[in-house]
Specification:
With 368 residues, the protein is mainly α. It is built from 15 helices and no strands. The chain has one domain: Farnesyl Diphosphate Synthase. The N terminus and C terminus are likely disordered.
Amino acid sequence: MTVHAVELPKLWMPHPLRVNPHLSGLRAESESWAREMGMVNDDEGRASPHAIWTRSQYRAMAVDQLTAWTLPDAAPADLRLNHRFNIWALAWDDYFASAFKRTGDLPGALEFTARLHAFLRPESGARLPEPVNAVERGIADLQQQLFPPRLGHWRQEFNRALARYVDAGVEELANSRAGRVPHLIDYAPFRRESFAAHTAPYSVELATGARIPERLRGSRTVRGLLAAFMDVMGLANDIASYEREVHEEHDVNNLVVVIATSLGIPLREAVPAAVRLVNTRLRDFEQLRRDGVRRLARRSRSEPEERAELETWIGGACSFLSGLYAWYTGAPRYVAADAPPDPRHRGGTDTRVPAPPSVVGLGVDAQP
């Protein structure tokens, strides 16, 4: 059975796609960086035994579109910085899958991950080891760029999120080796880590210049908004990756397999259930965005500047989700070459609210 043989409800996306006007300048510059880091074969196409991608594989991922679609308001320098981070995250993912997941090499994965931790020290000015592969070279280079003064407050949180991201890869490998399927109740928080979703608020802040006000960040409403935002990203990725991960790689760390195992239903029924669950989390995000934030502002007596800052950040988060949706449903990394393009990539929007899900959603109390 393939995902294309299943009658799927649509992933819901109420926000139109917006494209950063600086998209055209991304590909050549970022491809040069990826080659410099050793991730992509050189200009002449000579194969390198240590490269992660061929030139055609790199271009087919359309990472430039991913970045320009998710960060439509970013200035050129910020766009390039986030683009390099996106490339690095995908490089880690593909390298880890090839070197360790497909071979089942858990000791090798542990050693590789322990070395990466040395590049993720949250202290400013920490001395980094000498990188020995493309993944290490990429993160060592990014550590010199990711935290300019206006984003210095992100250093500890961002590096801790990356540490959780690479650790989650080891846990996924251990699960697959043991045939241990995560339970549905535990899976959403784990997927936020294994998708590096905790870094996404940084990307939104980088693009919009808006920071979630510290006084509101710990409120129940904002915590619920962030959780729903991150869940939509990672869980929707599971659906987009379902064909490759479940049927080709036999990975157990996928929402479809998690639902099927936790609820005791066939995979065929778990696929649409997973889509409905993701749609439920997006409705949670939308409810908090429309109603919860307004109640929070009233009850917390927030200042106009705080409300404006939060609203700007939330607008960037909406663009981030719509850009990810477009990439999941249109990039060759996820879509078969003969699949018809989704007309909503042209910037349209489906404003219909999907039917109530057939499984219990991971709901959030919207009260602050």
